[in-house]
TrEMBL record:
It comes from Lentibacillus salinarum. The lineage of its organism: Bacteria, Bacillati, Bacillota, Bacilli, Bacillales. It comes from the Bacteria. Belongs to the TsuA/YedE (TC 9.B.102) family. The chain crosses the membrane at residues 29-48, 54-75, 95-116, 153-181, 201-225, 246-266, 321-340, 352-376, 382-403. It is found in: Cell inner membrane. InterPro entries: Sulf_transp_TsuA/YedE (IPR007272). Keywords: Cell inner membrane, Cell membrane, Membrane, Transmembrane, Transmembrane helix, Transport. Its main location: membrane. This is YeeE/YedE family protein. It is a multi-pass membrane protein.
Length: 419
């Protein structure tokens, strides 16, 4: 893969075309040093004030952000490519990630493997109106907001300015969703959670076989679609060669998919639950609302097991620590490649980010998670709701294809090339 600085924007906001070069950008050493100092201070603070799990999760978060940025590993763009022109390359990388994840999750969940002896459980959630509406909203939102939950975090770390707006309204939407969640879960119809492993009698071995078969079937369908539609291939990304590629070049999607699955399994064994993102957004927003005198503790979302998080420091929240790690890891990856640069914001892409962030935040709360917690974590945990989340998010993506041009956002065409 040739070296170049012709970098595609992280989301789909139009950016000036940069000149090609035979060399990579120089590392942005002042920014790298600043990022390392911030990371060291945060690590020392966590080691001094929190239990051992939090510093470990910060490291895992750093590696997640580093991986996401270097591979430009996307969920939003993968869904859009499939629905617009029939390109399933990125979606097949999802399937590989999920295949590795279920292979690792199966024994961990079956035997309760944990680094610290805590209980281990996956994400298995109910299937009902809340899930259907929330995932559909999220599918539309991520196409307007320019990224999914993980994409928003790593784009912020990479300096994509409009994604700061997406993140802010993601938090606001998630907080509103937490306030309304009791209505959607208590008053709307839903079935009990369904685990392919424990609800069907298959056990984890049988659920693993069924999952692998489903992934293979979906991959085959994407190949059939590609042979029929002959979509453009994904464009090559800038990259170094040899060992330098680890820190200064793009990673192949299959490599990133494997690394993300392994890191999710390590997260499960470290904190007793898979990787998640958006519950921290609800926590941050609720704490701000509480500061301004709003009685968020009375909301149904903050009753029961969630109550302790609202009364504790955000640094005691494992999802918060993971999120901070992802942002910092993406920042270090972007500066190592000399790619960190704040981008321009205009009225149209800012409006799209506001709407997209609100839809994603609200939808994630209704759907028991985002592309990470519900889709990745749900399917890896053998939960039926993870598959349904994916189908409804694809439906939302299809609708969003007709909305994106209203905000100056591109939609892939059959003769386009794209990254």
């Amino acid at each position: 893969m040739s070296s170049t600085t012709n970098v595609q924007p992280i989301n789909d906001v139009k950016a000036p075309v940069q000149q090609k070069s035979t060399t990579l950008n120089k590392p942005q050493m002042p920014l790298i040093i600043g990022g390392l100092i911030v990371g060291a201070i945060l690590m020392i603070y966590l080691m001094a004030t929190q239990n051992v799990v939090q510093p470990l999760l910060l490291v895992i978060g750093l590696l997640l952000g580093f991986t996401l940025f270097h591979a430009r590993f996307g969920f939003t763009s993968a869904f859009r490519r499939l629905m617009s022109v029939g390109n399933g390359q990125a979606l097949r990388s999802h399937l590989l990630m999920l295949a590795v994840a279920v292979t690792l999750f199966a024994p961990i969940l079956a035997f309760g493997y944990s680094f610290f002896g805590d209980d281990v459980s996956g994400y298995v959630s109910p299937v009902g109106v809340s899930l259907l509406v929330g995932a559909f909203m999220f599918g539309i939102g991520m196409q307007l907001g320019g990224g999914c939950a993980s994409g928003t975090l790593y784009a912020v770390g990479g300096g994509h300015s409009v994604m700061f707006i997406t993140l802010l309204f993601f938090i606001i939407g998630s907080t509103i969703g937490a306030h309304h969640l009791s209505f959607w879960t208590d008053d709307m119809p839903a079935f009990e959670p369904v685990s392919l492993a424990t609800s069907t009698g298959l056990g984890y071995a049988g659920a693993w076989i069924l999952s692998i078969a489903l992934f293979g079937l979906i991959a085959w369908i994407t190949l059939v679609v590609e042979r029929k539609k002959r979509p453009p291939k994904m464009a090559a990304k800038p990259s170094a060669t040899g060992w330098k590629r680890v820190v200064r070049g793009s990673w192949p999607l299959f490599a990133a998919a494997t690394v993300l699955a392994v890191l999710n399994a390590l997260t499960l064994m470290t904190r007793g639950a898979p990787w998640g993102i958006t519950s921290a957004f609800a926590l941050w927003g609720s704490k701000v609302a509480q500061f301004f005198g709003i009685d968020v503790a009375s909301w149904g979302y903050w009753q029961g097991t969630n109550a302790a998080a609202l009364e504790s420091s955000i640094f005691a929240d494992s999802t918060t620590v993971l999120n901070l790690g992802v942002i910092l890891g993406a920042f270090l990856a972007s500066t190592a490649g000399g790619l960190f640069k704040l981008s321009k914001v205009n009225g149209k892409n800012a409006t799209a980010s506001i709407i997209g962030g609100l839809l994603m935040g609200y939808g994630a709360r209704l759907a028991f998670g985002c592309n990470i917690g519900a889709y990745f974590g749900g399917i890896a945990s053998f939960s039926l709701h993870g598959y349904i989340w994916g189908v409804m998010a694809l439906a939302g993506t299809f609708i969003a294809l007709y909305l994106r041009p209203m905000f100056g956002l591109s939609v892939p065409k059959p003769k386009d090339s794209f990254c």
